[in-house]
Automatic annotation (TrEMBL):
Molecular function terms, GO-annotated: electron transfer activity; heme binding; metal ion binding
Ranges annotated as spanning the membrane: none
Pfam families: Cytochrom_C (PF00034)
Keyword Ribonucleoprotein: no
Taxonomic classification: Bacteria, Pseudomonadati, Pseudomonadota, Alphaproteobacteria, Sphingomonadales
Region (Disordered) location: 168-232
Superkingdom per UniProt: Bacteria
Chain ranges of the Cytochrome c domain: 66-166
SUPFAM superfamilies: Cytochrome c
Gene3D superfamilies: Cytochrome c-like domain
Protein name per Swiss-Prot or TrEMBL: Cytochrome c family protein
Species: Sphingomonas lenta
Keywords: Electron transport, Heme, Iron, Metal-binding, Transport
Length: 232
């Protein structure tokens, strides 16, 4: 009886030792430390605390090469909450037909959050880009749980697709070379001013700083008078 008891105790001790050894080996091979950032990185999705490098490119630049067909593919992930056909019913989110150029948070028959109502303005290219980049940053407190589209070209493609669905706004003017987008996805105000000035005064040149320089000065009055005499 004692021999049988000792054998059982021995096997139990051996099994415990083997399990402990396997646990130690497993922790050495696979590691058991807590990662610095939880979860998995997803390509094109904005990381907490900052946007991807592509998100810093002005949306007007990306729209020049936007493909609405590719935007339709990206929009499929939005179709769980939104319809986009004319007269379509609202779901978890509002119907988006003709949304570009319309007042923000004003689609009839949908209950918007106070956060989005407080933004004001219309859904222009810059605002829609900023919203798609990060709804929570665009309207803190929004009910929208979508993480955002960090890939700038994907976002431009979606904008082009949305614009085709009952809006047809003209594309924005391309910013000067070297202009960067602000954290909201909009072009820097100095660059916008440069575009406006360059349009109003075609003789001005846009410098690398994004501000227009004066056009070349004309001849002084004495030189003009001498030239006029020579012509007579």
């Amino acid at each position: 009886m004692d021999i049988r008891t000792n054998m059982i105790a021995g096997w139990t001790l051996a099994a415990s030792g083997a399990a402990l050894g396997l646990a130690i080996i497993g922790s050495m091979v696979y590691g058991g430390e807590r990662p610095e950032k939880m979860g998995y990185a997803i390509e094109g999705v904005e990381a907490e605390g900052g946007a991807s490098a592509e998100a810093q490119v002005p949306i007007a630049t990306l729209l020049a090469s936007a493909d609405p067909a590719k935007g339709a593919d990206v929009f499929k992930k939005c179709s769980a909450c939104h319809t986009i056909n004319a007269g379509g019913a609202s779901g978890i989110g509002p119907n988006l037909h003709g949304i570009m150029g319309q007042p923000i948070a004003a689609k009839p028959g949908f209950g918007y959050s106070d956060a989005l109502k407080g933004v004001g303005g219309t859904w222009d290219w810059e605002k829609m880009s900023a919203w798609l980049l990060s709804p929570r940053k665009f309207a803190p407190g929004t009910k929208m749980t979508f993480a955002g589209i960090g890939n700038g070209q994907d976002r431009a493609n979606v904008l082009a697709y949305l614009n085709q669905q009952g809006s047809n706004l003209p594309l924005p003017a391309a910013p000067p070379p070297g202009a960067e987008a602000s954290p909201t996805g909009a072009v820097d105000p100095k660059a916008q001013e440069a575009i406006a000035n360059a349009t109003a005064n075609p003789t001005a040149e846009i410098a690398n700083t994004g501000t227009p320089t004066e056009a070349a000065p004309s001849l002084d009055p004495a030189a003009q008078e001498k030239g006029a005499r020579a012509d007579q």
